[in-house]
Amino acid sequence: MIQHPAFTVEPWSVRECRLHLDVLAQTESVFALSNGHIGLRGNLDEGEPYGQPGTYLNSVYELRPLPYAEAGYGYPGSGQTVVNVTNGKLIRLLVNDEPFDVRYGTLHEHERVLDLRAGTLTRRAHWSSPTRGEVRVTSTRLVSFTHRAVAAIQYEVEAVDRSKGVVLQSELVANETVAYAGDDPRAAAVLESPLVLEENVPAKDGVAIMVHSTRASRLRVAAAMCHEIDGPEGTRVEAEGLGDVSRVTVATRLKPGQRLRLVKFFSYGWSAQRSRPAMHDQVVAALAAARLVGWEGLCAEQREFLDEFWAGADVVVEGDPEVQQAVRFGLFHLLQASARLENRPIPGKGLTGSGYDGHAFWDTEIFVLPVLTYTHPPAAADALSWRKSTLPIAEEHAVQLGLRGAAFPWRTINGEECSGYWPAGAAAFHVNADIADAVTRYVDATQDTRFERDTGLPLLVATARLWCALGHHDAEGRYRIDGVTGPDEYSAVADNNVYTNLMAQHNLRAAVEAVTRHFDRAQQLGVTPEEAATWRDAAAAMFVPYDERLGVHPQSEGFTEHALWDFAATKPEQYPLLLHFAYFDLYRKQVVKQADLVLAMYLRGDAFTPEEKARDFAYYEALTVRDSSLSACTQAVLAAEVGQLELAYGYLGEAALMDLEDLEKNTVDGVHLASLAGAWIALVAGFGGMRAGQGRMRFSPRLPSGITRLTFGLRYQGRLLRVSITPTSTTYRLLEGPPLTLTHYGQEFPVGGKPVTRPIPKAPVPELRIRQPLGREAAPRRPD
Amino acid sequence: MIQHPAFTVEPWSVRECRLHLDVLAQTESVFALSNGHIGLRGNLDEGEPYGQPGTYLNSVYELRPLPYAEAGYGYPGSGQTVVNVTNGKLIRLLVNDEPFDVRYGTLHEHERVLDLRAGTLTRRAHWSSPTRGEVRVTSTRLVSFTHRAVAAIQYEVEAVDRSKGVVLQSELVANETVAYAGDDPRAAAVLESPLVLEENVPAKDGVAIMVHSTRASRLRVAAAMCHEIDGPEGTRVEAEGLGDVSRVTVATRLKPGQRLRLVKFFSYGWSAQRSRPAMHDQVVAALAAARLVGWEGLCAEQREFLDEFWAGADVVVEGDPEVQQAVRFGLFHLLQASARLENRPIPGKGLTGSGYDGHAFWDTEIFVLPVLTYTHPPAAADALSWRKSTLPIAEEHAVQLGLRGAAFPWRTINGEECSGYWPAGAAAFHVNADIADAVTRYVDATQDTRFERDTGLPLLVATARLWCALGHHDAEGRYRIDGVTGPDEYSAVADNNVYTNLMAQHNLRAAVEAVTRHFDRAQQLGVTPEEAATWRDAAAAMFVPYDERLGVHPQSEGFTEHALWDFAATKPEQYPLLLHFAYFDLYRKQVVKQADLVLAMYLRGDAFTPEEKARDFAYYEALTVRDSSLSACTQAVLAAEVGQLELAYGYLGEAALMDLEDLEKNTVDGVHLASLAGAWIALVAGFGGMRAGQGRMRFSPRLPSGITRLTFGLRYQGRLLRVSITPTSTTYRLLEGPPLTLTHYGQEFPVGGKPVTRPIPKAPVPELRIRQPLGREAAPRRPD
């Protein structure tokens, strides 16, 4: 856990002023660079020491066996796991034959800066070797947003004191040693050396190329590098390629003050189909384009791309510099994870680490895509297009489960289910409604009719069909969905999970509407008016259990009759509970890992009265232990909605600082994209009170005491809005696009050329006392 | 599946008149011999061909890793699996250097007979080698009921035509090749060669000894053999021992009509603690005792032991020779599985095969022990003493699960949980109430006060404590047991399973009564009057859900609101369902693998009115697919109780012929002890209408049309009763012990020196139409 202030608080960058080797692995995740296609962990240039080496290409995975102590029908036999591909960011330095290694000699200074506007990671080191060879090293690294296949590093060494021999070794290295955390020897074997060499062409004529393929999944990965070298006369360059290593060696002698500068361009490509020669040429071509632009050009394009993003997406949080930094850091990582997806998934950790095996989950649709939909909509479309591309697999999965329509996987890279524990995997069918929710949100926000026809409609139809196969009418005519798992992973396989049922209802209604708008296309999908009628009927009859005695919604039918978890007997070190208690124990008691019914109140707020929201929120606050990073942001939104602003503010802090403060102690495995998205959600949907749908964007803003002004940008139906909230009023500005009607506290108003300012009504005093489980209280946020 | 009539129908034996190699593995199970300590599959003397070689010692197991695709807290990391120990039944024959192998040459005759009164397996073969060496071979094998550590074989070869050279090789062989059915290479590796040689002493001075130990579980296994040889002059004997083989070779020349006769005595011992020399001496001593008695003596003692058993336990079924044979076959296997347990478990397959890894389950307490309790009570006491001996492990397991008292394992050999799938393993807590039920049944039947104090009370107290930790009172004061799995494995992790709740209620009440009777001993166990009061209170408030709308009990809360399984769409080849449908699919629908609520109506008949029984039985008949061998017998009992006598008769046939006709196609893995016990239960509790408890034995006899007379013996409270039922009357005879009061159709009557005959009232006409799921109809039984 990052307990000391590893990073300084600055509005537009994340700066580490000293190297802390004890949190090296965490900083590798925080400083990871990516464009959604290539991901480079923030490993030191020289490769060692490292927490976890990491170079990823979106969707390059290896298959690994999934073993079971007792097999069952339909269990996936193999899973996918992200592969650490050829490392192109490696530049080793030797000073008078001594390798530059921060663990030896004297590190006078060491600084790393992630610049959120430049899109670069810069490192400055001042080091003396054990034999007192003193150098300054400066490197700047980027993964290009504008050249999808390209990354680049500018590396400079300066001799500080006397003249010295300096050697740089710039490498491509495949099959690096990666620590494997599991206990399955077969999986470890798979991951030990996943890449089989096909070609290693040394950089004799300037460009080095290595082509590998994965052993079982048969994916071909190509990497190439070339260099621009600027050093004193007599600088010699050599190249060699052997086995899994390609190396360019630059040797020179630097007088004091003299510098050796190397720019390394490297490119990647992968394919399940294209041949070795085709992949070879592809990466060479990418390098050619990058060299044409040059280092300065790449940096300029990078900044330009980010300028445009920030112009629309920036969030300004006045009064809380930590949250200010964190929300920009989060938006930056969301953009990194999605900018150049092009029909690939957004994994839970993006491309910043190997956590969760590199899998994508429902968090993408429910936490990440809403942010992208209103800040960088093309990325949301890309991620949903990926889901659409996996529809045949999901349809096959549904058939295997005895269902109809599509059953999307709980966790996956290539679209096939990888969950090895079905009660918290395949049974979590809500992922299908979550995808539908992301589709309708995107279509509502963009009015992208072509997307709706080609991508949205097939997804909505297939998921609506699933709900009709999963549910049934009982004798009282209620439409029940039994034996499924909702978002809360401390309950499983329950009847009529309120979240699932309400999201399925939304899914069914959205499918009916989409079919009505695109009936010709729907007919091609085999939809008849009769089928659409069954969807309407199931949605209308959807059963939402309610506990009359307590006056709250049970999370699932019967939930409120279960025993309460004994929080008083639970010790602080027994959290997260799932590491210290059996699922058996957790499932049968009232204890909630993460917002479930509370998430339903956010996403299906229309299905609850304000009084129900207040009572339900109070009830579930007392049960929710937040053992998941997907919880705090949703609790923030509902806390704000029911008037618990200071509580909401505490939750905002948790969501926003998840990775910068390593709150869940697993940032080592990659950043928590959903929680980073959650910080934006807590601000915009929480304090901004923003809800959108059915062509209308509504706001009910109200700030907690620590934030003096909150300003954020939103893209909606071709407009760019900027909303600025103070404790007493809110100003709505239309920066781009034609006038539109907004809603402020239930009152509609038009906004066009001129900003509109509306007062914020006095906050009502919440009636219910809110408390969290003993020992899991929300920490109030006190910005300095 | 044994589709042809593999066995002839005879009252006291199971005879195979021709060798059918296609069902060799099944016949090895049927012809297995055991005394509960040693188990020998019915492998051919010469070892090959075989379906599965098998020599077992009760509780000799190896540990094997249990792998998980996704790990969870409290999952067992390793399981136990029964080991094929040193094979002592091997006797190879060579005729003129040609090995006797039924696959070669000409097998003129081949007969095997399991004699249920002699307790022997006899084989007669008449064979010509490919070079026309013609011999007759007769072997008789027994596993001694009177000498726990001893088995013996008498083997005779007779030259039929011309004079020929005959060689016998009598062996002990360890680490035979055993086919492994799973897909875990690590488990396969464990089982490939499980025994590590410690000592191999050849039979230079008459006795050969081999000592091995298991690799991971560190159990020491000793085997010894010695021989009596009777052959023509010039017969030579040699002995050698090398590696995992010990061999005694007997070579002779037989003229036509001459015989070579060999009696092989072999003995076994195992220990987790005793030293190699101690084990060596132990098996030598066992042989000495056996030789003293001699072959004829062993055979005489065997018959005497069985005579005594049959005198009390025999069941006579007039009118149905198949069932007659099957019920005796079943009783014989029950005795074989339990006669010499001495503090060891009764596995689901006894010691007849490696099915279920050799594990013991709840079937022992609920199906096997009731039969033993009324026919051979010492064996029931032994099995429960084993449970008692594992109490410390079960208490530790309870602590691990966050509970109190004892949580007995779902499947085990040594007392530790081996279930690799908790929803159908650790969550099936009813096993604890099942143990308590067996305890109270045994104590009621034997009035064994010492057992109750020393063994019963600790078991009842520990299990009662478990139910108090598992359940809780809800706001209405009902005592709920949530999130557990009942007997039906097509539902799991449900709230208030009626079977579990009623059995837990029984358990709690039994604990209160036992504590009252033995308060001094209970105090030593820490029981206070306060604690006993909580048990009484929980039992009194136990929640038994009821569906008022349908007028039936839901198997678990909410069960009757689930969708009905689509039987019409299920193809015959899709049974058993668990091999063709996901647990997810099965759990959420109304489909029942095996009697669950129906079993509750049998074991807790007092908790249901006759009308409820009739309605519940009809309801669950329509949902029960009998994919488990534990179902038909219970359905038979309730069918008889509600007046569906012909249906009960059909189910009796299924239970009784499970192994003789290989109905579930897995007799290859061992016999189905619980189903064999179930045949007795169907006859005695079904057609005899026998229920016992609270010191009273009650009968409501009524026969189906195919059975003309049913007679069975029962041991109860020191008496031996014999009950003989005809279509019109029942005669009760007291063969041993003082007079007692019985109940016939609710009317009490004394029975003493003279038989009492009572008329059977006219059968009421059942009102409800009973049907089974489409395609899973009960086959009516039509005895020829």
Describe this structure in words.
Chains A, B: Keywords: Glycosidase, Hydrolase. Two copies of one chain form a homodimer. The first copy, chain A, is an alpha+beta fold. Chain A folds into two domains: 31-67 and 75-305, Distorted Sandwich (Beta-galactosidase, Chain A, domain 5); 314-722, Glycosyltransferase. Chain A has 18 helices and 33 strands. In chain A, the strands form eight sheets. A ten-stranded antiparallel β-sheet of chain A has the order 1-2-10-11-12-13-20-17-16-15. Chain A is globular and about 85 Å long. Chains A and B meet through helix 13 of A and helix 13 of B.
Give me a quick take on this structure.
The structure is a homodimer of 784-residue chains. By secondary structure, chain A is α+β, with helices and mostly antiparallel strands.
Helix content of chain A: 25-40%
Strand arrangement in the largest pleated sheet of chain A: 1-2-10-11-12-13-20-17-16-15
Can you tell me the CATH topology of the largest domain in chain A?
Glycosyltransferase
Main beta sheet of chain A, described? 10 strands, antiparallel
Distance between the termini of chain A: 22 Å
Structural class call of chain A reads alpha+beta
**Number of separate strands of chain A:** 33
The CATH class of the largest domain in chain A turns out to be Mainly Alpha
| CATH architecture tag of the largest domain in chain A | Alpha/alpha barrel
Oligomeric description of these chains: homodimer
Count of all domains of chain A: 2
Please name the two chains that share the biggest interface, counting residues whose Cβ lies under 8 Å from a Cβ on the partner chain: A-B, 55 and 55 residues
Q: What is the average per-residue confidence, as pLDDT of chain A, rounded to a whole number?
A: 95
Uncertain segments of chain A of ≥5 residues (pLDDT<50)? none
